[in-house]
Amino acid sequence: MAIENTRLFTPAAMGAVDRAAIDGSLSGPGLMERAGAAVAASALEHWPGLKRAIILCGPGNNGGDGHVIARHLARAGVPVERFGMKPREGTDAAWAFESFPGVIAALADYRPEAGDLIIDALFGAGLDRAVPDEIAKLIERAANAGTPVLAVDLPSGLSGYSGRPTGPCFRADRTVTFAALKTGHVLLPGRDLCGELEVVDIGIPSRLLANDDPVVLNDPSVYGTTSPAIDASSHKYARGHLVVFSGPLISSGASRMSAQAGLRAGAGLVTVASPPGAVMAQSAHLTAVMQRSVGDADALSDWLKDDRLAAFVLGPGFGHNELVKDYARIVLEAGRALVLDADGLTAFADTIADLSSFDAPKVLTPHEGEFRRLFPDLLDDDALSKIDRARRAASRVNAIVVYKGADTVIAAPDGRAAINCDAPSKLATAGSGDVLAGIVGASLANGRPPFEAACAAVALHAEAARRAPDHMTAEDLIAAI
């Protein structure tokens, strides 16, 4: 999926773009003609052997696209049948129907046959409620028959805002959308329900593809590069000193993985800060990663007099809730960057708002379960998308929030948000979160601003996973950074 415009739109924002284009020099029928022609071309390219095109037409502009699609496919020699609703008179969709008049059968009359391709032009992103019962039954018949589906703009039954089904929903094999992606295209499960995504230029000027809602796909236009800047005069401290706190002896492995990942990701030097009882175990495993014994808050405060300590990772395998809070406070009061992950998040489950008072750079990296412990009210609000939840959490704690998953959302307190949607499923392995925490720490130690640091780290984490072996372990992932 090669996308030139990385900005994401809600359906409402995209509707405003369409209206602005029509209020300018473009005509509604002209946009509809180009959209319908593009979908017809996609159908012919990807289903060259189709025996019958079943065009499901809604009453609005999505249905208008369907009438144009029907005309183009019929002219190409494909048998075409339309099911659905006639358009409202006086609309662009009515123009489209008049350009290819004919019978539109009732949705209840459709029965799948071998060789059919369903082209779903019912509602697209224009519906954010459950589909009517007759469409739900059609969706079930098509699914039972295994009939392929090509969706126009968005599969009917899927929220273009949240990416969640509103009820019964088509599972498309391919979705063709226009000008730019909607948030529902990339948030899960919407991304899976859309199948292969194709974004088509239908002539909307790029100057109109802007809005006041700064949500983008995570890519180099956000963070620049995943590698730290290095020149001939660089030295290890110029690339940043990262510290990873270790837990007790029995759980010290998580911190080692974070530390090794941080070193691989470009920190100039990395130190594991171990409690005295874990020093010998860490020494047996660490080589290029250094070690320091830090047993209590006083020892940490004394060490922080060294202003070369740039960033800290706190939480992987740490296990001591009260000490987490002490260490976090000391690091943040010293103005150093802090990544909170795993046990570092759990320790703040009931006091997460306390972090908002610190202005030092902070990045929180919760997975779904940790997010629920920290922000249960946000997860209980079904009206919120994953983007909404991440943004509100970021504002609440005055920190960057990396809301992890196959559709990781990185959000800043100022409202910026990026969605990373190219991480492979093999990241679902023990320790991959510890690795990400170390990469984020390295990116902060390099001196990046926290939002860009988190975006770069998430991108590097995903790229390393793509290059790692199938059935990888966290150690394989570190080696692939």
SSE inventory with pairings:
Layout: H1 11-23, H2 28-46, E1 52-57, H3 61-75, E2 80-84, H4 92-98, E3 104-105, E4 116-121, H5 133-145, E5 149-152, E6 174-178, H6 183-186, H7 190-194, E7 196-200, E8 215-217, H8 220-223, E9 241-245, H9 253-264, E10 269-274, H10 279-285, E11 290-293, H11 297-303, E12 309-314, H12 321-333, E13 337-340, H13 343-346, E14 362-364, H14 368-374, H15 376-380, H16 386-397, E15 400-403, E16 408-411, E17 417-420, H17 432-445, H18 450-467, H19 474-479
Parallel strand pairs: 1-2, 1-4, 2-3, 4-5, 5-6, 6-7, 8-17, 9-10, 9-12, 10-11, 12-13, 13-14, 14-15
Antiparallel strand pairs: 15-16, 16-17
Helix pairs in contact: 2-3, 2-4, 3-4, 9-17, 17-18
Which properties best describe this structure?
ten-stranded mixed beta sheet; 2 domains; Rossmann fold; UDP-N-acetylmuramoyl-L-alanine:D-glutamate ligase; single chain; 481 residues; seven-stranded parallel beta sheet; alpha/beta
Structure description:
(6S)-NADPHX binds at residues 61-65, 124-130, 153, 254, 317, 367, 434. In the N-terminal section; belongs to the NnrE/AIBP family. Its EC number is 4.2.1.136, 5.1.99.6. AMP binds at residues 404-408, 433. Keywords: ATP-binding, Isomerase, Lyase, Metal-binding, Multifunctional enzyme, NAD, NADP, Nucleotide-binding, Potassium. This protein has two domains: 11-207, 3-Layer(aba) Sandwich (Rossmann fold); 220-479, Ribokinase (UDP-N-acetylmuramoyl-L-alanine:D-glutamate ligase, 3-Layer(aba) Sandwich), CATH 3.40.1190.20. Helix 17 (432-445) crosses helix 18 (450-467). Helix content is 38%, strand content 16%. The protein has 481 residues and is α/β, with parallel strands linked by helices. The protein is elongated, with a radius of gyration of 26 Å. The strands form two sheets. Strands 8-17-16-15-14-13-12-9-10-11 form a ten-stranded mixed sheet, with helices on both faces. The protein starts with 10 loop residues before the first helix and ends with a helix. It contains 19 helices and 17 strands. Strand 16 and strand 17 (417-420) form a beta hairpin.
